From TrEMBL, chain A:
Gene3D superfamilies, alphabetized: von Willebrand factor, type A domain
Annotated signal sequence range: none
Domain VWFA: 417-604
InterPro entries according to UniProt: NorD/CobT, VWF_A, vWFA_dom_sf
Species annotation: Vogesella alkaliphila
Region (Disordered): 197-236
Feature: compositional bias, Basic and acidic residues: 209-224
Protein name stated in the entry: VWFA domain-containing protein
TrEMBL record, chain B:
InterPro entries, A to Z: ATPase_dyneun-rel_AAA (IPR011704), CbbQ/NirQ/NorQ/GpvN (IPR050764), CbbQ_C (IPR013615), P-loop_NTPase (IPR027417)
Family: Belongs to the CbbQ/NirQ/NorQ/GpvN family.
Phylogenetic classification of the source organism: Bacteria, Pseudomonadati, Pseudomonadota, Betaproteobacteria, Neisseriales
Domain ATPase dynein-related AAA as annotated: residue spans: 35-169
Originating species: Vogesella alkaliphila
Protein name, UniProt field: ATPase
């Protein structure tokens, strides 16, 4: 009974003390589709991804009710760093939803302003950035005035003289960002200003390159909504003591909630709900490298297999360049690409379970095979080309000797004149399971088989390749079917023998595919890429580096006259694929089981 | 095929705001009897530049908008039947050669590859136009000049000029003008005040940042002028921006909404 009443009281007091207007809340998800475009138009870096920010303790004095309820300690502020733009997950600051929505756009415009390190303190930085926005964009200025007018009554006036002076300075800076105003000193931190960027943005947690995998993998089985959240993270070296908890415990040195202690405990796959809630409440999450790994994570540390078990290499390797976005140039001969044949591939027929679908696809694609179109000006044919005949007779009557031109119309069998190279991602991440769809690699195998069935039915030239990588000196490029080969049981056997492994150095694989495709004589050349995630590799090829290199490789392919297109099963591909392939250059398959149909359907519509 | 635009008097010179030294280059090329190739995105002022220069040099201008069905006969001329008899009729290229004017082939990559071959003898030092059908061989007078243009960032990556054709021209690269220059253009052509023109140009700069990521083609100076004209004739600013700047660029609802948000940073209420 006490618990129940306590629960009610807690709910009641929290609701009473809550300062926002939940009924007018606008979520980041509502504007997510417009946000990247708007941010870029404002001058923001196009390579940044959008993420939700998490609460930070602001430390300012709270209202009495809030202190009773134990709420209002944290506030979600916007900021950006070298990788991402962080915006609050939802904004319910104002009673009017339109204002809350406008606040998102204001924050994006503000964050897109160039940052100068010599800009002084938090207030000056924000004041100057605001002033720059207002001077350049009069429409935005009107929006800003509305926001400030709505915001000022919502801010408390502190009773303490120093705090009141500070608040007055902030209000003045909000109302007149052009005027030079300094922040007077005060013991307590000022009330947070939601119209401004974060005073002390959290440091990027990607400082250590090889740690990148760990947090991502941990996320993969936690709740989707929390996935993009970013906690104030602090990096620490592992505690030297083996058993952190077994130190001589002195009652007066009680650890605080978020202090780092190395607990000698085997990590197991526990319920992530509690951890998520705990992470919400903590000011700082400390991450350090542990020598122990979860069993499920072990697979990401594979070394090279023994030579006897490896795929059969073909030749010594091809040197390919790679794009370094920091230096903005191509580094020549940076990667070594090794063409290989899958090991243990024995000729095999199409698996029985794929037969019905394959039959249907073959029928569909036979219909796609080249239509006959009428051609005029042929030397022979069933019809007379009247236009040309009239012109010829007119010329003849003018008395000038003209050679007889071809004067017939014909219906020669047309050629589609189309070549397609399908490049499949075979990195280890394709080993993961996708619910009922089974393993990603299984879906990719089926898709390759069915795609090949369909294309051989319509008669277009095509090649099938797969890729994975282990650092820059070994980009593995698996030959499944080249353009000259026939699609038969040998190639089917190679597809069926595919095994996932290693990482995704996508840029090198795309460059090699571009070379192969350029050798094809067809008029239109399509480069289809099937993927399940972002480009990444063991070395620095991750995050922005990998994305930028892949983008360059795609641009090179486009410049060479190819049509690159990406099909992915990664549900979050919307964050990075538009940057890589352009808005119309990719497609996300939400239900992986439908990948074969989507792939063939896409081919039909792309080449129609 | 467009009707030839004959030379106008100097007082009726079509407005053109020079960006760099393109006018001098063009005039020198004309004096030296060299053909000119102009590259640049849609709506950046290529056609206007040629019209301006033709008027300035006092030459008749023959403009041909190229398309994929354009044949050599469409350029050179053909026999027509008239009153039971046939009569030779000059094409725009032949007329330009005969009259010693400027022949301007707009979007020349759109024309079929074999069509551009008739240009070759005109673009080297021979400067002749052989007309097979009448047995004539025209020698181009000193006033004649060949000008072609194309848009390198065009949708069809496969369509580009053959190197053998490109090599025959003096080339000028056009782009959207600098903000101050573009402001003057919008102000003059659109008939709006300086402040509004500056706002439109700032807005265009913001939208042009999206080229290649979210938009295939950027907003052109031409669209800015259209927008300014709509505003000058009394249309609401937001509506004018929507119809002249936003809607022509995309069909996707999300992109349109985001572009309108960008418009609002200049013209929001």
């Amino acid at each position: 009974m006490e618990d129940l009443v306590g629960g009610w009281w807690d709910k009641l007091i929290r609701r009473t003390a809550y300062r926002g207007y939940p009924q007018a809340a606008v979520a980041l998800a509502d504007i997510e589709k417009q946000a990247p475009l708007f941010f870029r138009a404002m001058g923001g870096d196009p390579a940044l991804t959008l993420r939700t920010a998490v609460g930070t303790a602001h430390g300012a004095r709270r209202r009495l009710l809030e202190r009773i309820a134990g709420t209002g300690e944290q506030v979600e502020l916007a900021w950006r760093d070298g990788q991402s733009l962080y915006l609050p997950e939802k904004i319910d600051l104002f009673p009017d939803a339109a204002r809350n929505r406008e606040l998102y756009f204001w924050l994006m415009a503000l964050a897109a302003q160039p940052q100068h390190s010599d800009d002084g303190d938090w207030l000056t930085r924000n004041r100057r950035a605001s002033a720059a926005c207002l001077a350049a964009m009069p429409g935005l200025a009107a929006l800003y005035r509305r926001l400030v007018t709505a915001l000022l009554p919502l801010r408390d006036t502190p009773r303490d003289a120093a705090a009141a002076a500070q608040e007055a300075a902030i209000r003045a800076a909000l109302q007149q960002p052009e005027a030079a105003i300094a922040l007077p000193p005060c013991r307590t931190p000022p009330q947070p200003v939601l119209l401004w960027l974060h005073p002390t943005p959290p440091t990027a947690p990607t400082a250590g390159a090889d740690d990148k995998q760990t947090p991502e993998m941990e996320d993969s089985d936690s709740k989707e909504t929390k996935k993009k959240r970013r906690y104030r993270a602090r990096r620490d070296t592992a505690d030297e003591r083996k058993n952190g908890m077994l130190l001589v415990f002195r009652a007066e040195s009680i650890f605080t909630w978020d202090e780092y202690v190395r607990v000698n405990r085997h990590t197991d796959d526990d319920d992530m709900d509690d951890a998520g809630a705990a992470a919400e409440d903590m000011n700082t999450l400390t991450i350090s490298r542990d020598n122990r790994r979860r069993a499920s994570r072990l697979k990401f540390d594979l070394d090279l297999p023994a030579a006897a078990y490896d795929d059969t290499p073909l030749g010594s390797g091809i040197l390919l360049p790679e794009w370094d976005y920091r230096r903005q140039r191509l580094v020549a001969e940076h990667c070594c690409l090794k063409p290989m044949l899958p090991r243990d591939a024995t000729p095999a027929p199409l698996p029985d379970k794929l037969q019905p679908l394959a039959r249907r696809l073959r029928r569909q694609f036979q219909a796609l095979s080249p239509e006959r179109t009428r051609k005029s000006g042929e030397a022979s044919g069933p019809d007379i080309d009247l236009d040309r005949l009239i012109r010829f007779l007119a010329e003849k009557r003018s008395g000038v000797a003209v050679a007889e031109p071809p004067l017939y119309q014909a219906w020669p069998p047309g050629g589609r004149n189309m070549a397609c190279l399908l490049l499949a991602d075979l990195s280890l991440s394709t080993e993961s399971w996708l619910g009922e769809a089974g393993q990603v690699i299984g879906v990719i195998r089926d898709s390759l088989l069915l795609f090949a069935e369909a294309l051989s039915a319509c008669g277009d030239d095509f090649g099938l390749y797969g890729f994975s990588s282990i650092r820059r000196d070994e980009v593995r490029y698996l030959l499944l079917k080249d353009f000259a080969e026939r699609y038969d049981d040998t190639t089917r056997g190679r597809i069926l023998a595919l095994r996932p492994g290693y990482y995704t150095r996508m840029g090198a694989a795309i460059r090699q595919s571009t070379r192969i495709l350029l050798e094809q004589p067809a008029q239109r050349r399509l480069l289809l890429i099937v993927s399940d995630g972002k480009p990444n590799d063991l070395d620095h090829y991750e995050g922005r580096y990998g994305v930028e290199d892949t983008r360059q490789a795609v641009l090179e392919a486009k410049r060479a006259g190819l049509i690159p297109f990406c099909v992915t099963v990664d549900k979050e591909a919307g964050e990075y694929l538009p940057h890589l392939f352009g808005r119309r250059g990719y497609s996300v398959v939400h239900d992986a089981r439908r990948l074969p149909q989507v792939l063939t359907g896409l081919y039909a519509s792309l080449t129609a | 095929m467009n009707a030839p635009v004959h030379a106008k008097l100097a007082s009726q010179l079509p407005f053109y705001q020079p960006v760099a030294d393109e006018c001098t280059v063009f005039e020198t090329a004309w004096r030296q009897q060299l053909p000119v190739l102009i590259k640049g995105p849609t709506g950046c002022g290529k056609t206007r530049f040629v019209a301006h220069m033709a008027a300035k040099l006092g030459l008749p201008l023959f403009t041909v908008s190229c398309h994929d069905d354009l044949s050599a006969a469409d350029l050179v001329g053909r026999h027509l039947i008239a009153g039971g008899d046939t009569r030779w009729c000059d094409g725009p290229l032949t007329r330009a050669v005969r009259e010693g004017g400027i022949c301007y082939l707009d979007e020349v990559v759109e024309a079929r590859k074999d069509t551009t071959v008739v240009l070759h003898p005109l673009t080297d030092d021979r400067r002749i136009l052989p007309i097979e059908r009448t047995g004539e061989e025209l020698q181009a007078p000193p006033g004649f000049m060949l000008v072609v243009s194309f848009n390198p960032g065009y949708q069809h990556v496969l369509k580009t000029l053959k190197p053998s054709t490109r090599q025959r021209f003096v080339a000028l690269s056009f782009d959207f003008p600098l903000p101050e220059v573009e402001r003057a253009v919008v102000q003059h052509e659109g008939g709006v005040d300086e402040r509004l023109a500056a706002q439109l140009v700032t807005l265009a700069g913001q939208i042009r940042r999206l080229t290649g990521y979210d938009l295939d083609e950027a907003v052109s100076t031409r669209l800015l002028v259209y927008c300014a004209k709509l505003i000058a004739s009394g249309m609401g600013v937001r509506l004018a921006c929507r119809t002249a700047l936003v809607e022509p660029l995309s069909d996707e609802a999300d992109t349109l909404a985001a572009l309108m948000a960008v418009v609002d940073t200049q013209f929001g209420a």
